[in-house]
Amino acid sequence: MANQKSEAALIKKVGDIANVMAAAGVGFTDYITQLTYILFLKMDNEKEELGLGSSIPEGYKWKELCDLSGTDLVDKYEEILSELSKEEGLIGTIFTRASNKIDRPVMLAKVIEMVAGEDWYMMEGDLKGAIYESILEKNGQDKKSGAGQYFTPRALIQAIVKVVDPKIGETVADPACGTGGFLLAAYEHMKNQSKDMEKQKFLKNNALHGADNTALVVTLASMNLYLHDIGVNRSPIEYKDSLIDTSDNMYDVILANPPFGTRPQGSVEVAANRPEFIKTSDNQVNFLQHIMSIVKTGGRVGVVLPDSVLTDTGATEKVREKLLKDFNLHTILRLPTGIFYANGVKTNVLFFEKGEPTKEIWVYDYRTGIKHTLATKPMTRAHLQDFVDCYCTGHMQDRVATYSAENPNGRWRCFSEEEVKNADNLDFKWLDLEEKDERTVAEVLEDMQAESDGIAEAVAQLKQLLGGIEI
Q1: H/E element, 450
Q2: pLDDT band at 470 (very low <50, low <70, confident <90, very high)
Q3: How far apart are CA 264 and CA 286, in angstroms?
Q4: Contact yes or no for 347/307 (Cβ under 8 A)
Q5: 3-class secondary-structure state, position 101
Q6: Alpha-helical runs (H) found in 264-350
Q7: What CA–CA distances, in Å, run from 200 to 66, 123, 307?
Q8: In the sheet where 361-365 sits, what is the strand order?
Q9: How far apart are CA 18 and CA 12, in angstroms?
Q10: Cα–Cα distances in Å, from 96 out to 87, 134, 222, 263, 275?
């Protein structure tokens, strides 16, 4: 078993190559994608050498690259990527729309040399997974690439999975899976619940379902699960646009942090494929409707959504009314800013079950008076432990509010059926805590820049919608 030192050494090795690549103009996202392709080729070769067979067609394997250099190396590598992107099953998913982003032979050779120096296939899944997760997290921190939108903080994911409590034998889906964090955490949560071989087989091959409409992300998520020994024959990740999915697939548990904002230009209109949806251009509201449609009766959901879902009028309000009527929205966790790689985003986690109307709603306010920054004070799993304890998974009837007349600043409060019915929206606030701005000058400037960029983007989109009219 590899020890922590070897894990740290491997993480450093992978990171050092990333720094060399960055200096040569290869961004971290491009590097990690190419690393994924090369790592898969190497692991397949090791598997074949152990007498376990190969999944890759002859002429397109790891050994084809080993004795090449210069432009011959680049040409052969690009041929391999092109061919494997046409394959079915796990291979085709890993190599979804694969293309080479390292056109300098010496740089490509460095990555191949680094991967060649280790035996990956027999390495423990936990170790391989930890190495890969570490570079995914570093990629999420790369602001230039915008990759943070695909990466949900693992501390938050772990807390959500803990309280939703997926059981072995249940199906778990994430319709906007990013790099697969929710699915991986669900797997880790379920894998020790039973030693039954059939249940374990179902967990590894049939329990998890993810989808994303970005080819790069499908590659990263598929590899992330594969390195944890999940979906070794068929990846649980699909390359598709969930919002236009009209299949009849239903799931026991949905865990997600879908993209916010409006649909990318050129995307198929959701309403055209999903006439049953209340028409809206907001991604988050459409994803909420999609999640409501694919969770089984009695199924459980934990989904990260922005404040606007709780407050907006019009179509959003109609979706909210449907949620309260057909689902039991029993819990809302208010999250602070500073925990995501996108600045200033105000979000909540909505927890609900299908089949019963909402009566009372319990709210945990982990926002008011809370300050986190990614660099100096990141949110950890321990920060959310009080919420996990208050949630009372499996025995919600025993919940006890920490808010009271004697303790008006208690963070855990129950809003009665009457209070919910009479509320203008679901953005419940009650804490009266002095909020101190503990950001550094650099962090303040960074937040101002992010807000400025957001305004500029909104203006550009508005101009586009108005046909270029000056505004």
Answers
A1: helix 441-465
A2: very low
A3: 13
A4: yes
A5: coil
A6: 270-273, 283-294, 308-311, 315-326
A7: 37, 20, 38
A8: 237-239, 208-212, 172-174, 251-256, 295-306, 347-354, 327-334, 361-365, 412-415
A9: 10
A10: 9, 22, 10, 22, 30
Q: Which two tokens stand for residue 185?
A: 């955490």
DSSP one-letter string for 112-145: HHHHHTS--TTS-HHHHHHHHHHHHHHHHT-TTT
CB-count burial class (<10 Å; 0-12, 13-18, 19+) for 427: middle
Check: CB of residue 12 under 8 Å from CB of residue 135. no
Residue 260 confidence class, pLDDT cut points 50, 70, 90: confident
Can you list the pairs that 169-172 forms with residues at least 24 positions away whose Cβ atoms lie under 8 Å? 169/194, 169/199, 169/202, 169/207, 170/207, 170/252, 170/253, 171/206, 171/207, 171/208, 171/209, 171/251, 171/252, 171/253, 172/207, 172/208, 172/209, 172/251, 172/252, 172/253, 172/254, 172/255
Q: pLDDT tens-digit profile of 266-317?
A: 678 898 889 999 999 899 999 999 999 999 999 999 999 999 999 999 999 9
Q: Determine the 3-state secondary structure of 170 from DSSP.
A: strand
**How many angstroms separate the CA atoms of 459 and 454, rounded?**
9
Q: What sign has the CA pseudo-torsion 90, 94, 96, 100?
A: negative
Q: What's the CA gap between 249 and 118, in Å, rounded?
A: 40
Residue 246 confidence class, pLDDT cut points 50, 70, 90? confident
pLDDT at residue 463, as a whole number: 57
pTM exceeds 0.85, yes or no: no
Q: Which two tokens stand for residue 141?
A: 């921190």
The answer to whether 224 and 129 are in contact (CB under 8 A) is yes
CA 448 remoteness from chain centre:
26
% of the chain with per-residue pLDDT over 90: 56
Rounded-to-integer distance, Cα 78 and Cα 72, Å? 10
State how far the Cα of 71 lies from the Cα of 76, in Å rounded to an integer: 8
CA–CA dist 445, 453 (Å, integer): 12
How far apart (Å, rounded) are the C-alpha atoms in residues 155 and 387?
Answer: 13
